[in-house]
Automatic annotation (TrEMBL):
Residues that coordinate or bind 3-phosphoshikimate: 25-26, 30, 171, 173, 319, 346
Compartments, as annotated in UniProt: Cytoplasm
GO biological process: amino acid biosynthetic process; aromatic amino acid family biosynthetic process; chorismate biosynthetic process
Keywords from the named record: Amino-acid biosynthesis, Aromatic amino acid biosynthesis, Cytoplasm, Transferase
Superkingdom field: Bacteria
Stated name of the protein: 3-phosphoshikimate 1-carboxyvinyltransferase
Protein EC: 2.5.1.19
Organism: Pelovirga terrestris
Length: 433
């Protein structure tokens, strides 16, 4: 069996400096996908070099798209148009990436060929019925394990019909999969969602020339459409910046400037939540880049107070709850997170994982059916935890280690390559101790 990387960290004070986080993962996936489906060339810069995005890149190469990489984060995609993809000669491996598997399913369901999608041990456990169901209603033939609800998924693509679909969950992956299938049909496809999930697909499809409409409660597209190649710059990932935002707030005498971070309102729940807790976060140099709002974020050590987090705030911060729970541990009072059952079906069950890690380090966290309750103890004693193979748990525990009394050992840390290559070096660079 593969030997898992393990790291031991000790507390740090006085975090200072400028941080540039890598490109946004959600936007990078979509840039690769939509540029591949466009007619003509697209140059992409700032693309995330994480393993998840490599899975998307390899998938489109396997589907016959030429993608040249000039250097690490600059690519030229030679788009083939919606009817130019080719049947892949082998199974497509989506690795650890739910976004890759679910969005590509929406694309492949309408393509006139056979394809098979698989993933790592974590992705193969994650629920796929949420996309199989609407795509099947559109006429797709998708087969999978566990009554077509888990990968590997086999897709026999073909002509689909448009649909009106009300999703029970606020999921950008579900919304995007249905819109991507819908734009390849003749007619109007509408997706309704209970709360607004991230809208990068809608924004970027419009940027590529697709007349897609967003309205309160959902989005609609009338197919068939054409995408035109466009040059695109990917902003820094707010989900990666979140680790440094929390570090900047809870470490004494910290001041960090996070440069060039995407602040799309459907993703900026972390800023709202940390400000509601009393955190000092300033937005500087606000601007728009390729249809996405971007800013520099200045964060300073602050006294935090526990709050209740639920409702529309949850999808706007869905990937940030592991690190929010660390902030909550260093706040006064109790933080209660509800309406967040989705956390149970991420790379791991993030409710159980976060509670077990914090309790292991001497904190006080209690799992709830749809969230967790964290008592702000103001300190962690230290100890040993595992990431459960989940990148966001590993990085959240690294932030906890900065303020723990004793050393923290984190087992299974190589998973950070999924979304944040260079995380450990960046963390070392801003430590002044
Ligand atoms: O569309 C996307 O890029 C993503 C959507 C979210 O998942 P859900 O759509 O399942 O909520 C999020 O957790 C994931 O990290 C990325
Ligand atoms: C849940 C995540 O990603 P995905 O669903 O794409 O695996 C994540 O990055 O936290």
């Amino acid at each position: 069996m593969e030997k898992l990387e393990k790291r031991t960290l000790k507390a740090g004070t006085n975090l200072r400096g400028e941080v540039r986080v890598p490109g946004d993962k959600s936007i990078s996936h979509r840039a690769l996908m939509f540029a591949s489906l466009a007619r003509g060339k697209s140059q992409i810069s700032g693309l995330l070099q994480g393993e998840d995005c490599h899975a998307t890149l390899n998938a489109f190469r396997a589907l016959g798209v030429q993608i040249d990489s000039r250097d690490n984060s600059h690519l030229c995609v030679h788009g083939v148009g919606l009817s130019g993809l080719q049947e892949p000669a082998n199974v497509i491996d989506c690795g650890n990436s739910g976004t890759t598997m679910r969005l590509i399913s929406g694309i492949l369901a309408a393509q006139p060929f056979f394809s098979v999608l698989t993933g790592d041990q974590y992705l193969r456990k994650r629920p796929m019925r949420r996309i199989v169901e609407p795509l099947t209603q559109m006429g797709a033939r998708i087969y999978g394990r566990d009554q077509h609800s888990r990968a590997p998924l086999a897709i026999v693509g073909g002509a689909l019909k448009p649909i009106d679909y009300s999703s029970a969950i606020a999921s950008a992956q579900v919304k995007s999969a249905v819109l991507l299938a819908g734009m390849q049909t003749r007619g109007t496809t509408t997706v309704f969602e209970p709360h607004l999930s991230r809208d990068h697909s809608e924004r970027m499809l419009r940027y590529f020339g697709v007349p897609l409409e967003s309205f309160p409660g959902g989005a609609r597209v009338t197919g068939p459409v054409e995408l035109e190649g466009r040059d695109l710059v990917v902003p820094g990932d707010i989900s990666s910046a979140a680790f440094f935002l929390v570090a900047g707030l809870i470490v004494p005498d910290a001041e960090l400037l996070l440069k060039n971070v995407g602040i799309n309102p459907t993703r900026s729940g972390i800023i709202d939540i940390l400000r509601l807790m009393g955190g000092s976060i300033e937005l500087l140099n606000e601007r728009e880049q390729c249809g996405e709002p971007v800013a520099d974020l200045l964060v300073k050590s602050s006294s935090l107070t526990g709050i209740d987090i639920n409702g529309e705030l949850v999808p706007r911060a869905i990937d940030e709850f592991p690190v929010i729970s660390v902030a909550a541990t260093f706040a006064t009072g109790v933080t209660v997170i509800t309406d967040a059952a989705e956390l149970r079906v991420k790379e791991t069950d993030r409710i159980e994982a976060v509670c077990s890690c914090l309790n292991q380090l001497g904190g006080r966290a209690e799992p709830l059916a749809d969230g967790m309750m964290i008592t702000g103890t103001g300190h962690l004693s230290g100890g040993q935890v595992t990431s459960y193979g989940d990148h966001r748990i590993a990085m959240s525990m690294a932030i906890a280690a900065l303020v723990a009394d004793g050393q923290v050992t984190i087992e299974d840390t190589s998973c950070t390559e999924t979304s944040f290559p260079g995380f450990w070096d960046l963390l070392n660079q801003i430590r002044q101790d």
